[in-house]
Amino acid sequence: MSAGGENLVLFPTIAHQHKASGTWSADVHGWCFDGADDFHFQRTAASFLRRALKIDRNQPDPPFFRERAGGFVVENRKKVVIEVAYDRTNLLAVKTKRNGHFQTKINLTISDDSPMATTTFGAKKVSLTAIRKDCQIDQVGGCYLIPDQGLSIISDIDDTIKFSNVGNREELLANTFLRPFRPIEGMPELFNHLAAPERSFHYISATPWQMVRSVSQFLSEHNFPEGSVHLRKFALKDVTFLKKIFPAYKKKRKVVEDMMFRFPNRRFLLFGDTGEKDPEIYGDIARRFPDQTLGICLRNVSPDLPGSIRFRKAFTNVSPRKWIIFEDVLRLESQFLPEMLGTYQNQIDNN
User: Fold this and answer.
1) CA–CA separation, 18 vs 40, rounded Å?
2) 238: pLDDT confidence band, cut at 50, 70 and 90?
3) Which of 63, 74, 118, 140 is surrounded by the most beta carbons within 10 Å?
């Protein structure tokens, strides 16, 4: 929500339950900023991005450009007190950092009478509210309640479910700032086939948080199952930011490992692509968490063949039945995923 130029954003997060007390610990993550006016936008975003995107200075803003570039030139609100609440009770105060972000955890006591919602596939979620009293604005955000047991689908976004062409920097920038976001053919339908009440979805990208609205809109418009979103913190300092904006291998590894530590009884199905470090990262994770890693699906966007030395090395000591390099989603639907889900069901039945 915004008031004047002031904005408050609450990102979609997750919560886990404490067995002893029955309470839930919910992640809170948001952003507080003042939107850039036209003059400020033109003197900042234009001076960096227009040159990189080869847009003539006399040409009007192309479609999508203002919407996606605007977040990089806002004035972040630091040391602002944000109150977070569930059901307008249990208020918790937190201050924003220099980058305008605020993060904390809030304990939720949820009963049968508590306000609750469900996703289209039956997973439970609650609404958290962030309140900024100094300018009388608030914002509601979703928090997904992740059961102790179940299946978690963690997916990269760029070149896994959204066409980005990360390997070509000019195309990557154009696909990010100038063109409509396009889903990879068959991926929305595949993810919806995977959706079920005890399953959760988590989307990871090296895209900066400044573009969270565009990313969330993409997921919603193309009917991907609801889930938490994990983007990258990024500060605009100088023109070199265009060279640093997308690589974020450590971020992806941290999100996946944190999930596995947090939910040791859940199984994880990991989606990524072969364009950068996903095979190496996911292979290492599968070796560290063999019981929790149900399967790894990697869309092939590299010249390496599925049986190449690179992939064999990345998945050393990982069962070949646990990973697949694919180009056609139909292969996943017809063979690999049914086997994975059959294995998962057998594990549930045996427990």
Assistant:
1) 47
2) very low
3) 74
* pLDDT, tens digit (0-9, with 9 covering 90-100), for 98-115: 999 999 999 998 877 777
CA distances from 96 to 18, 21, 72, 240 (A): 27, 30, 17, 26
Token output for 195: 């959706």
Please, what is the Cα angle at 265 between 261 and 271, to 5 degrees?
Answer: 70
Residue pair 332/305 in contact by the 8 Å Cβ criterion:
no
Q: Do 118 and 170 share a structural domain?
A: no
Residue 244, pLDDT > 60, answer no
With beta carbons less than 8 A apart as the criterion, state whether 204 and 157 touch: yes
Give yes or no: residues 55 and 87 share one domain: no
**112 and 21 share a domain?**
yes
| Statement to judge: residues 176 and 289 lie in one domain | yes
pTM of the model: 0.92
Q: Which helix (H) or strand (E) covers residue 10, if one does?
A: strand 6-10
Look up residue 132 and give its two tokens.
């900024």
Looking at 95, 122, 145, the residue that finishes a domain is: 145
Number of domains observed in the structure of the chain: 3
**Buried/exposed 66-99: b ≥16 CB within 10 Å, e otherwise:** bebbbbbbbebbeebebebbbeeeeeeebebbeb
162-208: pLDDT as tens digits: 999 988 888 988 899 999 999 999 999 999 999 999 999 999 998 88
Q: What DSSP line would sit under 30-49, residue for residue?
A: EEEEEPPPHHHHHHHHIIII
> 3-state DSSP: the chain helix, strand, coil percent, rounded to 5?
30, 30, 35
Residues 178 and 84 in one domain: no
pLDDT for position 239? 43
